[in-house]
Amino acid sequence: MWEARYQALVAETSAEFPGFAVIRKSDSALQRLIGQVLRVVTFGVQNAYLTHYTTTIGRHVYVVDDWDQWPAEQRYVTLRHERVHLRQFARYTLVGMAFLYLFVPLPAGLAWFRAHFEKEAYAESIRATAEVWGLARVRQPEQRAQIVRQFTSGNYGWMWPFRAAMERWYDAVVRSLENGA
After folding, report:
1. Contact 76, 4 (CB under 8 A)
2. Strand 21-24 and strand 55-57: pairing?
3. How confident is the model over 34-44, as pLDDT tens digits?
4. pLDDT digit string (tens) for 69-79?
């Protein structure tokens, strides 16, 4: 069932974004370079960019090498997240999105736009996770901590250091699901 849902999502995404492609990070010189730069600028904290993170740039979604071995449910949830980024790139353009995501107002620590864009995408991840595995999954403290950590650690360049604010945001997304929104 989930493989069919994932394939339908790929088809919908392809129709919405002509030129959409899923590309292995290891096949992209740009992605390999980004991985090296991130390792340096995060003092080694972000050393899993090529092996654990999916990245969207423009109409391309860059995935880890074992993407096809991931369970269909996980690919579905991840593509739901990345489709939010595809829509952001369509709205803000490649140059606009890159500038806002990387530099405004600061590249690290207070990267408001990066946090804003990722909050939109992670909210979709939370909704998709609840759809696939149920509300109990998104209520788990480990699930909450893992997503909050994306914002407050070097994983995304310490984009938003206010852990309590991120926890309140996460809880609000879960509450909206519990209230049927």
Report:
1. no
2. unpaired
3. 999 999 999 99
4. 999 999 999 99
Which pairs count as long-range contacts for 71-77, CB under 8 Å and 24+ apart, including other chains?
A: 71/2, 72/2, 72/3, 72/5, 72/6, 73/2, 73/6, 73/132, 73/133, 75/6, 76/2, 76/5, 76/6, 76/9, 76/128, 76/132, 77/125, 77/128, 77/129, 77/132
Report DSSP letters for 107-165, one per residue.
Answer: SSS--HHHHHHHHHHHHHHHHHHHHHH-HHHHHSHHHHHHHHHHHHSGGGTS----HHH
Neighbour count for residue 179 (Cβ, 10 Å): 7
Provide the edge-to-edge strand list for the sheet that holds 55-57: 21-24, 60-63, 55-57
Question: How many separate domains does the chain show?
Answer: 1
What average pLDDT does range 134-151 have in this prediction? 98
CA distance 91 to 105: 19
CB 147 within 8 A of CB 77: no
Q: Determine how β-strand 60-63 pairs with β-strand 21-24.
A: parallel
The helix/strand/coil state of 180 is: coil
By residue count, the chain amounts to: 181
Report how far residue 72's alpha carbon sits from residue 2's, in angstroms, rounded to the nearest whole number: 5
Helical residues (DSSP H) of 29-93, grouped into ranges: 29-41, 49-52, 72-92
Give the domain extent around 8: 2-178
- If you average pLDDT over every residue of the chain, what do you get? 96
Identify any residues that bridge with 56 across adjacent strands, giving them in sequence order: 61
